[in-house]
Write a structure and sequence with these properties.
By secondary structure, the protein is mainly alpha-helical. It is built from 18 helices and 7 strands. The radius of gyration is 26 Å and the shape is globular.
């Protein structure tokens, strides 16, 4: 309650929160705006019938935009795919690596290239979807009303609409990051996933009302969900702390031996929700494109990439492990940390300064990463277990739960940071600094 009261008193923070909520409201309104030329009821029925496959997973990330085939049907996923591509290329292409080292100006250029790649991917996916919709039907009803929308072909209109929708969602995410609270891209995905929670609760209630599930079993399921959410929150904030001591120079006597100590915190899940999002995006792209062709070998790949299948989940876990170590390697440089400690007189007890400290930190980081990868993999495999063995009628766990918890914690931390910053600014504004004349 105290945090909410402080947030309302802080005008800048209140504006940022209202701006974020407003942009997310615009996004949710756009989810319900249909793409021209499609039969909304037929498309909705078709995608609901395919909800257990790759479409169900994709629909979760788009917040229900895919099943309605709205202007935001592609969502933010092309942008995420483009970001993955350029993060990989940054480590492999020397020119991009040099751009990254240039600082903000280089990052701005890479961001611009990422936008261009997003448009290209959206065009490719839009063409695939429009071509597939033209030849599909649901229970005898065609998904496309007419091959022409006005005087333009349906495919052209769909490509333009979906590409523009993706660009607009990307712009919303960037605006939230710059002028709102939290990471805009993550909040867009968070909003889409959170929008499906009421329907999941309704399905569970209907099962109990129809006698298909006992009330006691439903209560146990809810309690188990709460326990899983608590465990995820615990793991998201868990840290491995490395003790750091600082030498005190210039002190003599008994007090000189009492060096101040601190710690270097390393999160158990250091990479956060990045590995599951990247892994899901990479697996959804080829699987989604495979839906829009009748080529035998591509159809075989589509069947093998079923989210409930063994091959999909093996690849999913493998990509999670890869991106966990890859992202950590990019973000955290143990050599730089060791050099900074040495520069400011810090050291790890029992470890020599310099390369030995860097090796020790890297070794601890790799061990922690193993625990983090195991935790991420277990959580991401939960939907398969719940749906295949417990027949739960909706998704629970997996990437969706990690995103919900991770984004909520990150946004709460940013709100607290803004409150703390405003508190110190107010303290400094109220303080009167008197100049003193120095006499020699």
């Amino acid at each position: 309650m105290a945090t909410n009261e402080n947030a309302t008193k802080n005008s800048d923070l209140l504006k940022r929160i209202l701006f974020t909520l407003g942009m997310l409201a615009v996004y949710r309104i756009g989810v319900h705006v249909p793409t021209p030329g499609v039969d909304g009821n037929a498309v909705l029925g078709f995608f609901q019938a395919q909800s257990q496959g790759i479409f169900g997973l994709f629909n979760t990330f788009t917040g229900g935009a895919l099943e309605q085939f709205s202007i935001f049907a592609l969502g933010i996923m092309p942008y995420i795919s483009a970001s993955i591509i350029f993060q990989l290329l940054t480590s492999a292409v020397p020119s991009l690596e040099a751009l990254k080292k240039e600082g903000p100006s280089g990052q701005k250029k890479i961001q611009q290239y990422t936008r261009y790649a997003t448009i290209l991917l959206a065009i490719v996916q839009g063409y695939g979807m429009s071509s597939w919709l033209m030849g599909s039907n649901f229970e005898g009803a065609k998904l496309v009303i007419s091959p022409l929308v006005g005087f333009l072909p349906f495919q052209v209109v769909t490509i333009l609409t979906l590409t523009a929708g993706t660009c607009f969602v990307m712009w919303i995410g960037e605006q939230i990051t710059d002028r709102g609270i939290g990471n805009g891209t993550s909040l867009v995905i968070f909003t889409g996933i959170a929008a499906s929670i009421p329907s999941g609760a309704q399905k569970l209630f209907e099962l109990v009302s129809n006698g298909e599930m006992k009330a006691v079993i439903a209560l146990l399921v809810v309690l188990f969900m709460l326990a899983i959410i608590s465990a995820v929150i615990y793991m998201e904030v868990a840290q491995r702390r490395i003790t750091i001591q600082y030498s005190q120079r210039g002190q003599m006597g008994p007090q000189s031996m009492a060096a101040p100590s601190s710690h270097l915190p390393i999160k158990i899940n250091f990479a956060g929700v990045i590995p599951p999002i990247f892994a899901s995006s990479l697996l959804m792209f080829p699987a989604t494109m495979a839906q829009f062709t009748q080529t035998p070998w591509i159809k075989a790949m589509q069947d093998s990439l079923n989210p409930n299948g063994v091959i999909f989940n093996i690849l999913f876990v493998s990509l999670i492990v890869f991106f966990s170590f890859f992202y950590t390697e990019i973000v955290f440089n143990s050599k730089d940390v060791a050099e900074n400690l040495k520069k400011y007189g810090g050291f790890i007890p029992g470890v020599r300064a310099g390369s030995s400290t860097a090796d020790y930190i890297q070794r601890v980081l790799e061990r922690v990463n193993v625990a983090g990868c195991t935790y991420l993999s277990l959580v991401c495999l939960m939907p398969v277990v719940f749906q295949n063995y417990f027949k739960l009628p909706f998704y629970f766990g997996g990437t969706s739960l990690l995103i919900l918890v991770g984004v909520a914690l990150d946004t709460a931390q940013q709100i607290q940071s803004h409150l703390l910053t405003s508190k110190y600014e107010g303290f400094l504004k109220g303080a009167k600094i008197r100049s003193r004349r120095v006499q020699f």
